[in-house]
## 1
Amino acid sequence: MRRVTRIALAGTATASLALALSACGGTSTSSSSSDSKGDKGLAIAYDVGGKGDQSFNDAAFEGLKQAKAEFKYKTADVEPTDGETDADKEQRLVSLAKQGYNPVVGIGYAYGPAVKAAAAKYPKTTFGIVDDSTVTAKNVADLVFSEQEASYLAGVAAAKATKTDTVGFVGGVDVPLIHKFEAGFEQGVKDTKPSVKVLSQYLTQTAQEGGFSSPDKGKTAAEGQIEKKADVVYAAAGLSGQGVIEAASAKKVWAIGVDSDQYAQEALAKYKGSILTSATKDVAKAVYSVAKSVEDGKPESGIVRGDLKSGEVGLADSNPEFRNNTAIQDAVKAAQEKIISGEIKVKTS
């Protein structure tokens, strides 16, 4: 069960989708069902990188697909635009709420100001925001995760897998959210094997500079770390992480993916032999759960956190080389038990 701290009311309004979205980002999928009432349900607005990142945004879309299939209603998912402002994001969310979509979820911390403003304008609509806990309103669910816990386990795996005693971390943007990934990873490495060196690099200072949406930047950063003998590279960089995985594959070293199980992503199939594991967070479940809460008449509100104990963060084991490596599995299992029990306190910065 997800832990819910507050409850809010929900409601809807209606209007035309295509018209309202023309000025604030295109709709990649707007789907209807055979439901005779024509109800509108979950709508999501993607973060930078958009649909097709094989990571964060695609995980959110999986949650939308599950809600659509189960609740038989119309859904919408909307792409970001280059160089957009907070006002553009707000317009996008307001447009979806005005049309009657409920809930409306912003995928990514960058939607913070937009969610706050839109929620104030549509108090009977439930809004969600992934990866941000700063928006406090009765009709807003802050969908957050303990990413540092999964990253700690990734660090344990990296420390057990490295043969050069050097591993790398590539962060998309130098912000507190990604600092959690780095902190957990480095702590996991050092607690497992103190002699291992951790090389860290951030691609950009702001998302607008492309840190989450530039595979070329990720590839260049990973190549630099590999030249310095890193033989395991962990990326928390959205779409840019694909470049990290490509570089690892070319140099025949390990990559660790993020958010989704990237070993299982079709678009990354030619690189999957180099994807040791992925530090996952169940964005799909978070998005689906807020939709279900609205459908059940008890909308989620406040901070709703997924962590290792709830099973909403962890390590993917699709790669048989990872799954069948007894030394790695024993170390990861031991660390997981200690985190859940509280024996290990994972840093967030």
## 2
Amino acid sequence: MAIAKAERLMNLALCLLGTRRPLSKRELRGSIEAYLEAGSDDSFNRMFERDKDDLRELGLVIETVENLDGDVGYLARRDSNRLPPITLDAEEAAALGLAAKVWQQARLAGAASGALQKLRAAGLPEDVDPYEAHGALEPRIPVHEAAFEPLMLACRDRRPVVFDYRKATAARPEPRHVEPWALECWRGHWYLAGWDRDREAERVFRLSRITGKVRSRAGQFKAAVPDVVTVRETVASWAGETADRSALIRLRAGAGYPLRAKATGPVRDLGDGWEELEIPYGHGLDAWLVEFGPDVVVMEPAELRADVVDRLRAVAKG
């Protein structure tokens, strides 16, 4: 649906920009395939009015002209829709070049490359290499999750979505009805922030835990979208990055290396294949510890130990 509408808007914009005289609704309907497929005049009129408003919101200046016979026509004059000259210095061009090289996902890579070529043609001399001074920089944002693209489009178009999500402590995925706000990459993983309609609260979802397809839903958002969506801060809080206490745990020898990296002191060998260490304790640490299964045992504090035991029991029950 989103792609069909985008093509329809592009065709309408090209018709209005390419004409030297105002085109009537009848002429536009006969020139654009999507309008020819409209079931009735009322359906076409509603579609055309929405498309015209959408193009104006995107910045296209559309004139409405009435001829001597009283017929109304539409056109978009090129001189009214021409961008001012774009000039880029070497540093600005380098920054744009690095940004365009970031994306590894095929669809975004093509769009970024095309945009960079247009900007280069607009303001950067051909004999200037924007990468020369920054050749050692090779930024990359990996995107491996199939859910990324449909969620990116849903965030852009403000469309509610439904997907199956498996929590770290759950044996099976559960359906989640979400109003998506923003996507952000943090420490090599992509996260979605949005409004969970079932829980009526803001939630952050790790894309690698989304199973199956992301399905779009009709209708408007019910919750207000915040001006600033702090995905990284939220994820860091849930991951215990804002910890102000310590937890004493025991690890099986040779296991739990991510936990060892967070040790605040020396790792003590207890014998019998077990070691003891202290790590920062913050919100969400219990969910992380459960992922290590029988290789970790919480000693202190008591509330953390109880939370881990409760989560393990929930997983065992299925």
